[in-house]
Amino acid sequence: MTHLALLCVRNEGAFLLEWLAHHRAVGFNNFVVFSNDCDDGTDEILDRLAAMGWLTHVRNDGPYDKGGIQFTALKAAAKLPDLQQAEWILPLDVDEFVNIHTGNHTLPALHAALPDATAITLTWRLFGNAGQVRFADAPVTETFSRCAPTRMFWPWRAAMFKTLYRNDGTYRKPGVHRPRDPDKAKLDAARWFDGAGRPLTEMFKTRRIFSDYGQDNYALVQLNHYPLGAMESYVLKADRGRAVHSDDLLGLDYWVERNFNTDIDDTVNTLAPVRDAHLAELKSDLELGRLHDAAVAWRRQRFDALMLQEPFRALMGRLMMTAPSQPLPLKAAQFLVRHATLARDQSEN
């Protein structure tokens, strides 16, 4: 089978090679990557990778439609031959790593476990900062192993998923969390399963973007989500801006809702030997190695410059003073969910 991962990046050249090497080890054999307005040489890295046959690079420097940067890229992606020819598609971000728990931990093993699936939801497992202050040029998956528990009751973002879907015409366009533009004539035959192998209801075929609370959604596959990284990296993320909600500035609210460190999960590194072989192949290319090192140097220089500006220096100080987040117990979460439900019902009436 052909599996295509779709990615949008800006100023993330320091993380790109690890991400590609890991997902090649998982079983993705094609990548389409959109870059926009890069300062760290990410676009040059992607050009070199395209010349080496690793991926297709598309510059997405604007103008952007009202949906924003990522939606503009996804809209353009739907028209590309790479996507039209792929058998399976998964839109991802560079801080998301597919982690398969069945068989030999690859995509074919996942399909063997769910042979009838049209779509498989990969629920986020949030990996916290674990007190890491400075950015290090080391694998993200080895630097951060502390994470949220397998059962979370709040916030709802902890249950969000990305969708690996069969490109059989049931859905005609990729979306950030789920495929879009369904063919209504094919929806009845579509079969959705979650990361634990449970069949999902009809609602998931057209609407849902998060899994049910309070259950383990990871028996077969999970999506390791590293949205924070080191505190230094988070300051750079705030400077970069968000791909979807580009007008929303990152602050402590985003941090607190994702900085869970109660559990340890290093299962993603089962594929580390294969990943490292791919990574060594990439870094053996002198031009690619030079560009990677330049992206790492740019991050350090940019952080130093940001720390001379009060908003970013203040953010760094708050990050250093803020304790890790604690998962809410069921009763506390139910209190919040009840009010969220009331607000939704009132808005619909």
Automatic annotation (TrEMBL):
Pfam families: Glyco_tranf_2_4. The keyword Transferase applies. It comes from the Bacteria. Keywords: Transferase. InterPro entries: Nucleotide-diphossugar_trans. One of its GO terms (molecular function) is transferase activity. This is Glycosyl transferase family 2. It comes from Sulfitobacter brevis.
